[in-house]
Structure formats: structure tokens, C-alpha cells
Amino acid sequence: MTQTQKILVTGATGTVGRQVVAELLDRGHKVRALTREATRASFPAGVEVVEGDLTEPDGLAPALEGVTGLHLITFGGAAFSPLETGPRLLELARSAGVRRVTVLHGGGPTPLEDAVRADDGVDGTVLMPVEFMANALEWADGIVAAGEVREPFVDRLSSMVHEGDIGAVAAVALTQEGHGGQEYVITGPEVLTVGDKVKTIAAAVGREITLVELTQQQALAQWRAAGLPEDVVGFLLEAYGNTPEVGRTVSGAVEKVTGRPARSFAQWAAEHADAFRGRS
Fold first, then answer.
1. pLDDT tens-digit profile of 189-207?
2. Does residue 136 lie in a domain region?
């Protein structure tokens, strides 16, 4: 058994942050969750909620008191801009006695991630998940309303990861020795096409779902109609049309770090089946 520790989780209301919180609690650790609006946040019983903003690091000294681990995200503030405050955050963390830091990769180079890599005063671990299984929730409305998924590049491959497994890897790196200086590419246990994912969801909800393949132009029109910024549209076009090898290769990191196999998309679909049935 690992000794009980107290961990500060930033970005605690996000898709990954919530999983880090849940995994730490499951492992018997104490959790302090940082959010910019504490009155609007909801967490499991036992989580200590504190208010703060990563863009104003000097105000976070009380939140760092008594914690041994710190989970960081790379953006902050109301505009979710890349954080430039990494060196000061890490200085405060070291002064407070923080020994281990994890940082969630932001999809590209960021000042905060660079600061974690360069800091030899803490054991820093970079978490680099590929496509989240939770991204499939974007299909829920179309499945509920019309029984269909409309996507381009339907033969594209993805080793998408259960967001709970990202939380599990983070929890281990934050509470156990041996992960400092590591960069973990976190994937699921299998490589899937869009068609594979749709069939898996159909099996989970017990209904037929039609996959409609969009042309590139139709996809661009759909994304823009949804209000996506042009930089996001460009990212999706590149990621879906030319998925890098790292995004379609099983890494084995989940089992290596946690000692158990990564969760499958079938498991994820079963857990979220109600969303595709139109139930909250």
C-alpha cells in the first residue's frame, strides 16, 4: 500500500482533471481541487475545494501547503491561454515541499510543459494522451435524433484512450517513485476505425446506427456551421486526414504504469450508453 498523500489537482473540473481526482480518491489519497469558481464546482465527498487561478500563481501558496503532488494543465484564465507562469508555479511548489508534478500535454509545445521538463527540483512527468474516448460523445445528438453518425475520413485509425486511464496514470505518477523525467504516451488497448467505434456504440445501446461518410468539403462546412474557429478546423482536418503514427499505435503505457490493462472502447461505450439513448 502507498502511504496516504495529499495532492493538488488543477483543472479539476475538466474531462481529465475529474478522473485524476476520482482515481486518487479510489487509491485512498486526499485531494485538494483547484478551480476558478469554487461555488459552481461539484466534487465527490471528501474533496477539499479551493479557489485560485493559475495565471496568478502568487495567490496559490495556501493551496500548495501540505501537498506532496501537483497535477497541472498548460492553459489558464478565462481565455484558456497558454500559461506563462510555469517557473513561478514550480518555485512555489518546491518551497511548499511538493515532490512530484504531472502535466497534461496540451497538444503541442507550451511554456508550462517546458518549465516542468526543465525543473530538476521536482519529479516531473508529462502525460501525453491520444484521442479521448469521450470525444465520441459529440455523436450523441445525431444518434439520438437520427440514428446516425456523420464523419469524414471514416477509415482513419485511432488508439483512443479511456479518460479514466489518463487519471490512473496520473495518480500513480503523483504518488509513487520512479516516474520523474518520464513522458508517457497514453493510449487504449486497440486501434479502431470510425466504423469500429460506431458498431461498438450500437452494440452498447442496442440499436442500429448508420455511419454517413462526409466529403472533406462537407466536413469543413459542418465544423464551421458548428462555430469552430479556423485553427481548430485546420487541426481536425490534419488530425483526421493524416493521423500521426503516435495517434494510431498502442503504447502499453497504461499497463506499464498502473499494472492493469487499458480499458477498451466497448467498456467506455457501455458506461456511457445512456448518453446515446438521450438520457442524462
1. 999 999 999 999 999 999 9
2. no
103 located within any domain: yes
Residue 101 maps to a domain: yes
The DSSP bridge pattern shows strands 75-76 and 81-82 to be: antiparallel
pTM confidence score: 0.95
d(CA 232, CA 55): 23
Q: How many domains does one find in the chain? A: 1
DSSP, res 84? -
Domain presence at residue 14? yes
User: CA angle at residue 119 from 49 to 72, to 5 degrees?
Assistant: 25
